[in-house]
Design brief:
This protein is mostly helical. Helices cover about 80% and strands about 0% of the residues.
Length: about 300
């Protein structure tokens, strides 16, 4: 197991290198002039002299590969550059905004699991009956409704009309309820459908018929033979959803005024703040890879066959 973890971690660096260079090149080779954006954010008149000095200070007068390797050498030291808009180090801003995004994504993932898994099991155990039809409608609505529009509806109903929950900000446990629900709606709907399909697959396997023939109690059948075996495929969705929830929280954080990485990155897109966008992509890529590594470890914990294959 330790060797597997080390091998997966070893793939993280090449992946980060490829993604970083690809995004670095897109920013530099895209439309517009980075030097003009820098001078605009610094509120410096774009004279010929100012353009020449800024281009030299930013290293934009050098070839693209040289620029990237200078950025990479600094990033390996923990220096992701300085925001052109705020003048603060990008690493400090990431450390400031990341906890809020992790809190929102973690709460949304908890809602996804607590809502999607029980409803999926309930639907599978009542196949083609009214609970199954009801959960299908719920999952269809959850996938169809955009999270930002759902966020506006939640604010209108629970914050404006009823006055039960705060509409914006991050002030106490109550403020995370609405953004977490808006963020988790689509993921919970997908999880519901995956769990339902997985449980239905387990219900048709031979080992479950043998377990019933042995006279095992219904609770034991459900917990050890149905749910445990059915959870392996949806684990893939959990790993993917966690990365998706962090990335998809960009719009939700803006709707609810949540001070996280997504809202910070959207502001950077509007300002064309290149160092911030580069740091955001690197962090999100690392989080996504680490989430998938965690899922692989959960695979081995849930399914002994995977442990045996890796040992072999």
């Amino acid at each position: 197991m330790a060797g597997f973890v080390l091998r997966r971690l070893a793939t993280l660096l090449p992946l980060l290198l490829i993604v970083s260079f690809g995004f670095f090149a897109m920013l530099r080779l895209g439309r517009g002039d980075a030097v003009l954006d820098y001078l605009r954010l610094a509120q410096i008149p774009p004279t010929d002299a100012a353009l020449a000095v800024a281009r030299q200070q930013l290293g934009l007068d050098q070839p693209l590969l040289v620029q990237f390797f200078h950025w990479l050498a600094a990033a390996l030291r923990g220096d992701l550059g300085v925001s052109w808009f705020t003048g603060r180090p990008v690493a400090e801003e990431i450390a400031h905004y990341l906890p809020a995004t992790l809190q929102l994504a973690g709460t949304a993932m908890l809602v996804t699991i607590l809502a999607g898994v029980p409803l999926g099991i309930w639907a599978a155990l009542h196949r083609d009956r009214w609970p199954d039809h009801l959960t299908r409608v719920i999952s269809f609505l959850g996938v169809s409704v955009p999270n930002f529009w759902l966020g506006f509806l939640l604010v209108l109903f629970f914050a404006v009309t009823l006055g039960w929950l705060p509409a914006v900000g991050r002030d106490g446990p109550a403020s995370i309820i609405l953004p977490a629900l808006a963020t988790a709606a689509m993921s919970a709907s997908v999880m519901l459908r995956l769990v339902r399909a997985s449980v239905l697959g387990v219900l048709g396997e031979a080992h479950l018929r043998f377990a019933r023939a042995r006279g095992l109690p219904a609770r034991t059948l459900l917990g050890r033979h149905i749910v445990l075996n059915a959870m392996v495929p949806p684990l893939t969705a959990i790993g993917l959803h966690l990365g998706e929830l962090m990335g998809g929280a960009m719009v939700v954080e803006t709707v609810f005024g949540w001070p996280g990485l997504g809202r910070w990155a959207l502001l950077a897109i509007g300002n064309r703040d290149y160092p911030v966008l580069q740091g955001f992509i690197v962090v999100m890529t690392a989080v996504f890879v680490l989430c998938n590594l965690l899922v692989d470890l959960l695979y081995a914990w849930l399914d002994p066959r995977i442990r045996l294959e890796r040992a072999a």
